[in-house]
Specification:
165 residues, alpha+beta, Ubiquitin-like (UB roll), DNA polymerase, domain 1, 2 domains, 5-stranded mixed sheet
């Protein structure tokens, strides 16, 4: 089945079985290997992408369901070789360790920040709860999200909902 979609701003068309997982299409057919395979059951968050602006576990999405959509992977966060602020903060804080969970964490956190989400510890931890990390203990990841949120805030003097500055 020919499946047209836009991935990270690029129009693509793949000829794949309709039930092939979007994760496998992205990685194997299109070369977007930033999206990681973790559990294959939608439980770990490593394969998180955004489809038409909504977060989704790409291991659970049949390729046919992505036809005509716009997909954003972790590779789509950087612009002209300039890292997204969140990616920069993950590097600065040491929030990225082995790299398996990092793309999913980034995609979930970017979605949260773009929707003006609160930056307090409890909220950030809740947002990231569907993304499992076995390396960091989440402290550095939460710090990276909070730093990026503050850096991206339209007016740093106004606190975001939830009490974060």
């Amino acid at each position: 089945m020919k499946i047209p979609m836009t991935v990270n701003g690029l129009p693509v068309e793949v000829d794949v079985p309709p039930l092939k997982r979007l994760l496998d299409v992205l990685r194997d057919d299109l070369g977007f290997t930033g999206t990681k395979y973790g559990c294959g059951e939608g439980e770990c968050g490593a394969c998180t992408v955004r489809i038409d602006g909504e977060v989704a576990m790409s291991c659970l999405v049949p390729a046919a369901q992505a036809a005509g959509t716009t997909v954003q992977t972790v590779e789509g966060l950087a612009t002209d070789d300039v890292l997204h602020e969140l990616q920069h903060q993950f590097l600065e804080t040491g929030g990225a360790q082995c790299g398996i969970c990092t793309p999913g964490m980034l995609m979930m956190a970017v979605d949260h920040l773009e929707h003006g989400g609160a930056l307090d510890d409890a909220t950030v931890r809740e947002v990231l709860a569907g993304n499992i990390c076995r390396c960091t203990g989440y402290v550095r990841i939460v710090d990276a999200v909070q730093r990026a949120g503050r850096a991206l805030a339209p007016d740093e003097d106004e606190p975001r909902p939830g009490g974060a500055a």
